[in-house]
Amino acid sequence: MAKVVPAKREENEMYLKKNTKRVTAAILSVMLGLTLAACGSGSDTAAVDNTQTEAENKDAAAVESEAPAKEDVATEQASEDSGSADDGSETTRSEMMTEDACDPVYRDQVKEMVSSGTADQFMLVYIDDDEIPELLASNSEGPLDKENAFIYTFYNDELVLLASVISGADGGSLSYSENNMIRQTGSVAGMSDVYSKLADGKLEEELRAEMIDTLKTDSEGEEVYKYSVNGKDATEKEYNDSIDGLVKEYTPFISIDYDGLNVITYKDGAYEQTQTRPYCSAEEMLVLLGDPDAE
Q: CA–CA separation, 90 vs 80, rounded Å?
């Protein structure tokens, strides 16, 4: 499980580190240009000034011998980025898909959500064990008349909405565990807890525990609830035990709330908020996603 530190630092650094190869190639290309320029300048000076020492000649020769090697690295990286295979056949985007393939799709979604007023704060996180980050989106005003918390992923070259809720209304909440579990809760005449794993671009339900208000009272005047686990009638104890067992295994959960990403731990039958992680603004997220128009 990842260390509990501010997501803005942890998630963004994790994401940026995955682009080291591209950055390295760019640096080598710049170094190559400077090296070749230096070699040309050295040759012009030698034609005018014959005082160049033997040591300088050896240094210039050594630089020239390194240049082809650097050029080969840059050329190899350019070939990889173009998506062409060595045998001349084209590699499809799906076959070469890395975390970078999702960038333009996520950029468009961020811009659309900001434009429509749907969301204005975002974060990239890794929920499952692949190299494609999930995109979280939230509305900082926390409106209770429309969905305000979202989780997206990128699968088969397409944006996929995994889950969305009206967080804060009728017990609604949306949270995730960094061990690949997404939790959705809601309360309409009772309480519903749904836990799902992310696999192949969709959610696979692991547990659905529901507590329904029967609108009846017992002999002591207490409300009577009907319980179910995965669609089957259950006792109150069975209902509670099913949730306890799963939550203990995947705690902590990180709740997508209007005021931040709230880290919720579960211990001894009780939930406790232990930390709030910040979001990225839309502008920061667009920079992170490589938007050429972002500053």
A: 11
Other CB atoms within 10 A of residue 31 CB: 15
Question: Any idea how long the chain is?
Answer: 295
Gap between the Cα atoms of 139 and 129, Å rounded: 27
Alpha carbon distance 78, 284 (integer Å): 28
- Kindly report, residue by residue over 214-261, the tens digit of the pLDDT: 999 999 999 999 999 999 999 999 999 999 999 999 999 999 999 999
Ordered alpha helix ranges (H), the chain: 7-17, 20-48, 54-82, 103-116, 236-250, 282-288
Q: For the CA atoms of 211, 215, 218, 222, what is the dihedral angle to 10 degrees?
A: 70
C-beta neighbour count of 157 within 10 angstroms: 12
Q: What are the backbone angles phi and psi of residue 176, rounded to the nearest 5°?
A: -145, 155
Burial of 25 (0-12, 13-18, 19+ CB in 10 A): middle
Cβ atoms of 262 and 254 closer than 8 Å: yes
Cβ burial of 55 (10 Å; 0-12, 13-18, 19+) is exposed
Burial class (CB in 10 A: 0-12, 13-18, 19+), 174: buried
Phi, psi of 240 (to 5 degrees): -65, -40
Of 37-51, 113-127, 187-201, the least confident: 37-51
Give strand pairing partners of 223: 217
Distance CA(289)–CA(110), nearest Å, equals 10
Contacts of 50 (CB under 8 A, 6+ apart): none
Inter-residue contact 208 to 193 (CB < 8 Å): yes
